[in-house]
Specification:
2 copies of one chain form a homodimer. Helix content of chain A is 45%, strand content 20%. The first copy, chain A, has 13 helices and 11 strands. In chain A, strand 7 and strand 8 form a beta hairpin.
Chain lengths: 352, 352
Amino acid sequence: MKKIAVKASKPYEVLIEQGLLSECGKLIAKTTGAGFAAIITDDIVDRLYSEKVISSLEAQGIKTVKYVFKNGESSKSSDNLNKIYNFLAENGITRTDLLIALGGGVTGDITGYAAATYLRGVRFVQIPTTLLAQIDSSVGGKTAINLPCGKNLVGAFKQPELVICDPLTLRTLSDETISDGMAEAIKYGMIRSRELFDIIASRNLKNYFEIIDDVIYRCVSIKRDIVENDEFDTGERMLLNFGHTIGHAIESFFNYETYTHGKAVASGMHIMTEQAVKHGDCSSEALDALDSVLRSYDLPLTTEASVTELVPLCSKDKKCESTSINAIVCSDIGKASIRKMPFSDFKAYMES
Amino acid sequence: MKKIAVKASKPYEVLIEQGLLSECGKLIAKTTGAGFAAIITDDIVDRLYSEKVISSLEAQGIKTVKYVFKNGESSKSSDNLNKIYNFLAENGITRTDLLIALGGGVTGDITGYAAATYLRGVRFVQIPTTLLAQIDSSVGGKTAINLPCGKNLVGAFKQPELVICDPLTLRTLSDETISDGMAEAIKYGMIRSRELFDIIASRNLKNYFEIIDDVIYRCVSIKRDIVENDEFDTGERMLLNFGHTIGHAIESFFNYETYTHGKAVASGMHIMTEQAVKHGDCSSEALDALDSVLRSYDLPLTTEASVTELVPLCSKDKKCESTSINAIVCSDIGKASIRKMPFSDFKAYMES
């Protein structure tokens, strides 16, 4: 079993091993000592894994209740959140009990947010079951829900007690969902590790599973390093937004329908790096390598939207301060920097 | 001007002076440097004080927008919270901007909670305008909203940038609202300071204003000391619950209609202390002094509900862990202790 210790304001471990789902009861009992847990999951994950998780927990004497919501981004809403709160109240969850997020990013984000706010904070465990959740959203303590007027507008920093990653759960995902996660894995390589980038580039969407444990381990390690330095997202953590400023603009331009988050980030990374090459900030070899790995995971380099159409949408990105923007630029594979610039300069940089 | 420095995870000051409302712009500009503020207030306070606050802010070049909701506890809801979030989004509030809570406890609690969670945290300033808010709810960083199934079930710890108390705002309050706040002031005396208790006891509901600056200063100082030692409410802070376990049971028994929070806490303090006398834990002189000061502020000693009816409701209090309860007992005026006991022992203590 691979272990990554995260020294955030509350320290915790990320555990990675194929088959870990059947061991989760033991691991959770040992780490938390909780006797009562509310499992929060969506209907698809519920059918696949709830039984395994519940029997593992109950074998350790942990009593469980389960709340199931409809799979999908539309469930990351204040309406679903209120239903979760009422479920917790009805089942008498107290501060000594535990929430367990079993599922992908939506489940982790809304469960973590409920855990951050119910009774001003109860403990929670992440059991991420998608690649994106395993390498990214389950680590670092960002939790959120969407508002009708924007994604992730309401949230909290809340560290889990434990993160349990079982890569076997990826076997039930569609190719598209794997692509989606792989875009973020490629991002970690681009901003911090040529070695990780090369490992990812050595496989493709068909045979990625051969390297997946190592990829998850390396991505989480990078995120851990960055988050430990900047838990509350005021500096270095912005590096994680590489490809995301344009990516969010793409998602928004197409009303969050045509492009998944990963596909939008993939195009965002290509577009940013193409501009970096134009400005002499990055070599064309690095861009070629990026494009090649994106293609091998079935990820797009561009979209039907022009850069001129996308740039204005970047200023709505909540990560931009009103008059300036933090652009993340890779000067080579494995090397990224934050460039704070007036929005007008960013526009000029992107449209040249 | 009286100043109290609070050294919480984020340090801030509580400022107390009659007439401070007209100075708030200068104080807020100096402390926060913000250029844009969203004022959150209720319709009653809006009519009385918004104009003064806004003109003071705008004189310092701070642009303002204002959100007004209906006065009353029913506005401390997720419905009103969502309206606040949408207002903040529509007005483009970012992390460099400011929320200002102008009003009583409901306003402070919901504004603080919105500030804790919108964009995972924006800064906020408290301008409490009721006695209860000035001496209690605006200090210490507890923020919350109510759920249909219980009060304050959802919340966060969020410290303000600054608390501005202008005792002149108390002049527009009804006697009942002053009584309500004075119950908490008496509580501070009971748990920590015979001197404060005696100052309060030297006046009554008709002439309390003569001592109010000093009372606010002393109450906030006590709360500051306790909160600095136990910001996240896992130990000493429970002392602040003196009278509250029974008090909450009273509020709940009468469906939050017959008794205000302060009246319920007043009865809670009397009932707890009466039992302490019976068990030899407290002198009857202390109880007599408590009863006398409660009467002079028009606060009740008991209610129509019997202790036998109230005790079962204490176990629903979210402050009780499932099998035990932290009872707060005063052994004398100014001296309180936390007694953790099985719920059955608490029942026996109360019903003997």
